[in-house]
From TrEMBL:
Transmembrane segments: none annotated. It comes from Thiomicrorhabdus marina. It holds the Pfam family 4HBT_2. This is Acyl-CoA thioesterase. It comes from the Bacteria. Keywords: Hydrolase. InterPro entries: 4-hydroxybenzoyl-CoA_TE (IPR050563), HotDog_dom_sf (IPR029069), YbgC/YbaW (IPR006684). Belongs to the 4-hydroxybenzoyl-CoA thioesterase family. PANTHER family: 4-HYDROXYBENZOYL-COA THIOESTERASE FAMILY MEMBER, NOVEL THIOESTERASE SUPERFAMILY DOMAIN AND SAPOSIN A-TYPE DOMAIN CONTAINING PROTEIN (0610012H03RIK). The keyword Hydrolase applies.
Amino acid sequence: MFSIQMQVRDYECDLQGVVNNANYMHYFEHARHQYLHDLGINFADYTAQQIHLMLVRAELDFKASLRPNDEFTVTVTMERESRIKYAFVQTIIRNEDQKVMCVGRNIGVALNPNGRPVVFEPFEAVLEEAIK
């Protein structure tokens, strides 16, 4: 399981003094990108090859609200959703008390130069390694 430490910045909060719901997607995205980077998957390199990694579905379950300066951990694991879809299962946990704040399941695909979803071999290698 991959994890990354983050901290809420004041400008991410709304008038109620809690993190605006849209920012949870930013947290998840940053964690996914860092996870993939650590696996050696470079978005810019694949884009130059006209392979586009995209989300096709995002599911978020909000459990509690983060507040300014909260420190938190975002975890990422990957699962097969179908032959060509990959699920990133993610959780945001407040460090202070280990409370789960948000859970996400974000479904991604790889599109070939023709815009068609394809099996993405680097993800296949990750899934194979996870099974071992």
